[in-house]
Amino acid sequence: MRRFSLSWRAGLWALLLPYLLGTILLVALPALMSAGLAFTSYDALSPPVFVGFANFRLLLADPVVTTAFANSLFFVALAVPLRILGALALAMLLHRPRRGIGGYRAAVYVPTVIPDIAYALIWLWIFNPLFGPVNLVLSALGLPLPGWLAEEGTAKFPFVVMSLFQIGEGFVVLLAALRGLPREYFDAGAVDGAGRWTSFRYLTLPLLLPWLVLLTFRDVILSFQYTFTPSLVMTGGGPYYATMFLPLLIYEEAFDRFRFGPGSALMLLLFVLSAAIIGGIYLLFRRRGFLADA
């Protein structure tokens, strides 16, 4: 039995080894190198020169950087709660087995697997102010016709709307969580006369809370990255920097202007911002007793 146990563990390590090596070589080491470049002046043509915190001081004094931070925070503050609520609502609606349910579940998941560039081009057409379906419907209803991506005041909202349709992964996670909830709790609640809303509020929601917090952490991280392809393809950061998000600014600093030092510093600031938001959410839930066992 001991020999079998050792060989089984060795087999597990053998299976994990390629992924561990890939993570170290393709994720961990490049991340460490990028963090080091944040404290240098480097243009890929000459050796990096250590400049300390000069890149950070330069960035924090740049109004474009401040705008990009504000745009990214605006997007995350709107998109993350709406994505979580949308995934939860659809999971509650579609978790019970019934005829044709597989087709509805697939329809929720399909937008998640559409390539990012194709998805961005679809929404670029949808929000076209001249012939896009959104403005055609508004025109038929006699409502004002916004310029959407062409106007500074409305340019960010299409990014939030398009993110709400790519919630397939969170939807699948919550479907699995709902199927794993202990039925005896709900049977006991039904005996006590609990209705649907009471059962959802006092049983389903508290039991799902760890999953919802986990999805919130995940969506905060992914939402900061999500805006890169849509902003690059749909607006290029305009109009008037209204859709200049941090990932696009990092790309422009590093690969358009060959300023890898400031680009890496921006990446490091984005990492710190994401960690601060996740840490704040964690402390909020823990202080309220929801994550007492975490």
Gist?
The protein is mostly helical. The chain is 71% helix and 1% strand. β1 and β2 form a beta hairpin.
The order of strands across the largest sheet is 1-2
Roughly what fraction of the amino acids lie in strands? under 5%
The average pLDDT score comes to 89
Calculate Rg over CA atoms.
23 Å
Distance between the termini: 34 Å
Main beta sheet, described? 2 strands, antiparallel
Helix % is over 70%
Given helix and strand content, the structural type is mainly alpha
Order of helical and strand elements: HEEHHHHHHHHHHHH
Number of strands: 2
Uncertain stretches:
none
Overall outline: globular
Instruction: Count up the helices.
Output: 13
Q: What are the salient characteristics of this protein?
A:
13 helices; 71% helix; globular; 294 residues; mainly alpha; two-stranded antiparallel ribbon; single chain
Task: Describe the model.
The chain has 294 residues and is mainly α. The protein is built from 13 helices and 2 strands. It has a two-stranded antiparallel sheet with strand order 1-2. A hairpin with a 7-residue loop joins strand 1 and strand 2 (49-50). Helix 2 packs across helix 13, helix 3 runs parallel beside helix 7 and helix 12 packs antiparallel against helix 13. The radius of gyration is 23 Å and the shape is globular. The two termini are 34 Å apart. The mean pLDDT is 89.
